[in-house]
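We modelled the chain as a single entity of 70 amino acids. Its sequence is:
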Amino acid sequence: AAWTSKRETTVGAGGEFPTLGAALTQIQKNFKATSRNDRFLIKLAAGTYTERVSISGSDWKGDFGANIVF
């Protein structure tokens, strides 16, 4: 599906992205919430994730951060 119409992805072994950071970068660039209730689901495969992720600041404007579900 085109990224503008996607509403979920998987991170980790066998997923679409190897890291949560990579998924968030793609989602931030392409996901456009159509309402405050429109959500994007990130499914995390079982495993250990050693990366640090920060969802704050000017890169996450408006309700964008509130529309992401882990």
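As a brief sanity check on the tokenised model: The mean pLDDT is 81. The helical segments are 20-30.
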